[in-house]
Amino acid sequence: MFGRVKSLDAILATAEKKSLHRSLGAFQLTMLGIGAVIGTGIFVLTAEAAQKAGPGMMLSFVIAGFVCAVAALCYAEMAAMVPVSGSAYTYSYAVMGELVAWMVGWALILEYAIAAGAVSVGWSGYFIGWLNSSFDLNVPYTLVRGPFDGGVINLPAMLIAAAVTALLIKGTKESATVNAVLVGVKILALTLFVILAIPVIKSGQFTPFAPLGFAGISGAAASIFFAYVGFDAVSTAAEETKNPQRNMPIGLIGSLAICTIFYMLVAAGVIGTVGAQPIYGPGGEALSPGTPALSQACTAIQENAVVCSKEALAWTLKQIGYPFVGWLVGAAAIIALPSVILMMMFGQTRIFFVMSRDGLLPEFFSKVHPRFHTPHIITLITGLFVTLFAAFFPVGLLADVSNSGTLFAFAAVSIAVMVLRKTDAGRHRPFRTPAIMITAPLSIAGCVYLFFSLSAVTIQLFFGWALIGLVVYYLYSRNRSHVGRGLMEVHESDADIPPAPGTT
């Protein structure tokens, strides 16, 4: 099971050949983290969290942020030591062998492809709300929601996923300047929300604080984890960081702390102004987000609750008398969220590309388009699945399933860091995780805790997906693996990997 390990020395030899200039300080890392983290989760999942935890979702943000912080510190040591493509998949291959690496890579499909679907559905909610408020168009639910959510098909989510797929195949370079502007737009929108909502908070809206108990807060924390995914962008910049031992923890913990405070202020603004109590069924039972039962209950009250909204922040601003600012926040989400879909789908194609070069997936997956120089086949396949996820599934279910894959990958990285400290203690580590025997177990325990706080359906889906992965591995990948066949050439050279958006 753990026998086929790819040589860490071969991976590192390549990394040394293409070492990057160390130019990032603590401030730049913190800004990078904030830009990567603030996105879909806070714009879209606030309503889901309210249905699961009520006002207690404020505590959910703290729990999810803490688990992310300890996982990030473990991630940073591996990223600094093995600064190559493939992220958690590559780290696992180097430390725990091919089968674990395959399962991590298989789980990362959940992280990236399904997350891209979730962002597409989130974008659709804001787009339809914006159309409604701008042109007074009432698009029927059958065309803008999936079957679980009171509709038939989500056409806007399909269209944005298809458009991003086309951009990726063409090889659009998203410039750093445009990306910075989009980050600014997101932060400005959230800042405006906080400035307008906080002064009109009513303290009575916070009781009962935890209507569904601590289990509800845990469930919301497991969903809200999606709002923090992206922080590993800071970890992967370890090779370009000045004095990484000092600056990496500042960048990681600093960006997560700022984002957590931001998120709590936004959550407080929603709760204190329009309330965030869950909606119950006829028998007094709490209804699950993204189900036909909740959709019917929302229709019965004419969608007049934040837990019913597909554009929670814009809806809240409209309710408290700022329709134009609500319109602006909706426009900001519409402008900024497609870049998140693009980066999620790019991450997915990069993982597939590396797995294909290792022989674990068919070789044609890593074929590059002769004109556009992009992996067009795997981008098309990824785009097709993302489009289907976006068309038929609600955002909450997609985010939860994505989280299950992410939590599995982060736990694997945390185990890998501890294993390497024992088996290869003398290796140079540009960044060392502080108090590793406390931090790594905390990270693993936190990931397991959030994983089992997900809904039973999500956990079953994850284990079903893992089972399919094992079948594929033993029927196809194990016999074609380059490491298994003794082809030990170094695959990690990034020369043949298409450049990331924002690079040339």
TrEMBL record:
Annotated InterPro entries: AA/rel_permease1
Superkingdom of the organism of origin: Bacteria
Gene3D superfamilies for this protein: Amino acid/polyamine transporter I
Topology in membrane: Multi-pass membrane protein
GO annotations of cellular component type: membrane
Keyword presence, Ribosomal protein: no
Pfam families on file: AA_permease_2
Cellular compartment(s): Membrane
GO molecular function, one term: amino acid transmembrane transporter activity
TM regions (residue ranges): 26-47, 59-82, 88-105, 112-131, 151-169, 181-201, 213-231, 252-274, 324-347, 377-399, 405-421, 433-452, 458-476
Entry keyword set: Membrane, Transmembrane, Transmembrane helix, Transport
Main location: membrane
Protein name (Swiss-Prot/TrEMBL): APA family basic amino acid/polyamine antiporter
The species this protein was found in: Novosphingobium chloroacetimidivorans
